[in-house]
Design a protein that fits this description.
This protein is mainly beta and about 575 residues long. Helices cover about 5% and strands about 45% of the residues. The strands form nine sheets. Strands 2, 33, 34, 35, 36 and 37 form a six-stranded mixed β-sheet that branches. The chain has a five-stranded mixed β-sheet with strand order 1-28-27-17-16, with no helix packed on it. A five-stranded antiparallel β-sheet has the order 12-13-14-15-18. Pfam families: CS (PF04969). Keywords: Cytoplasm, Nucleus.
Length: about 575
Amino acid sequence: MDVAANCSLRVKRPLLDPRFEGYKLSLEPLPCYQLELDAAVAEVKLRDDQYTLEHMHAFGMYNYLHCDSWYQDSVYYIDNLGRIMNLTVMLDTALGKPREVFRLPTDLTACDNRLCASIHFTSSTWVALSDGTGRLYLIETGERGNSPSEKWEIMFNEELGNPFIIIHSISLLKDEDHSIATLLLRIEKEELDMKGSGFYVSLEWITISKKNKDNKKYEIIKRDILHGKSVPHYAAFEPDGNGLMIVSYKSFTFVQVGEDLEESKDENMSEKIKEPLYYWQQSEDDLTVTIWLPEDSTKEDIQVQFLPDHINIVMKGQRFLEGNLYSSVDHESSTWIIKENNSLEISLIKKNEGLTWPELVVGDKQGKFTRDSAQCAAIAERLMHLTSEELNPNPDKEKPPCNAQELEECDIFYEESSSLCRFDGSTLKTTHVVNLGSNQYLFSVIVDPKEMPCFCLRHDVDALLWQPHSGTQDDMWEHIATFNALGYVQASKRDKKFFACAPNYSYAALCECLRRVFIYRQPTPMSTVLYNRKEGRQVGQVAKQQVASLETNDPILGFQATNERLFVLTTKNLFLIKVNTEN
């Protein structure tokens, strides 16, 4: 059995600044331009049956503005008329209206359980599109961005089951065979999940291919499904299509597709429904085993044999339970009786009084241990000295207990740490695992569209940007940039909704649910002399923080950052904030 390699992320020390002094608030005005939309954005609000945190992460916090990383300063959104609208910016002072590049052929409002329509720019000439009803489109676009050769033509159009959103897609060309891999996300109902939320997350890896140049039709050649219990923060294919990387709180595993999937589902159901073979409980002196009998059972149908360290129970000639007991019993004093409620009750007297048995029969997992209320009360009483109903019952004590109210949000760790996993595309097994621990996931950004998207993690107070590489490389995750103290700063922004950075790392930005956008620039040289009063040294660089306030009361639905501009989408408007000027 292949075991996944436990890896770690190697920080490049030269990219860290231990003497960073913080951000200085700058009151320099940011040029802001506003465009009114012809039709409202096709926002899909959560339904009453989409009540879990996973639904909120996947669909409630969905980014309705999509950036085409293959073309500079080109963004797209889908309006409630089913039109895909594009705005490509050449000059801020001569902004045109968003233009229609494609119209969905289906009526979105006809589907009751639809999700938000999603789009992913697979390559410079291909786009993957979902209408939110469960239909996937692959569209050949030609050169996009106001190019004369731009023409959106559907090359694949198929219903794929329950509604989904597109997480990632790549275009592959091998020996003149063109294929596109797409990663689709669904949140499915799990009927037998009594303890959890009642839902699970499904990621479907679909490969669609055209075998040769003469054959114009694209067909599905491969479908693989992963199941997990949390919406992934990050999921992306390797550029060669040989692997998949996922950052999530709870791990994902591949499941079999088709008939095998149904069989394994039936097996899982039968396992969950299966009742324990027997119930047992214990005191300091004895053990009591309870077995529910079939109807019309008599004393003659049952044989129970007691030995000092062994038990054998036979029912109607069939062996019911046999094995070595965890410890010795007084077999001569042990008894059994059939009770009025049609149950067999067996009493075993312990030879070693006071010994707690972790199991009844060694290696047997068919029984269930139960505690009576008196035992629970006794345990609670023994632990009483470790607990208190008061937060700090003895404030005069030399070492008072930790006061949770003194913790800042940025000091709080999640109950379950995230992990970064790489899955092999052919074996469908996990090959590499990184335990992220307290390195909180912040956001992802496409620095180079030909490479995998980068992801940003919090490391101590900083935010570090990591570029994943193909699974065959030694340095699979490369530390490429640092946003000083941003990990600490962002923790105080309780109303943050979207987080992004420029592909050239010149600034990071986050926006709140309403109106405000915060911009954090990288340190730049000072034009004037500035001294640090505490240390008496000259400060050569300063990092600026800027705040933009949008003139709208509509909630922010989308947010994208380019090297020069920030794009902010609301229900009825598209805002452009000029952050950097061209070099």
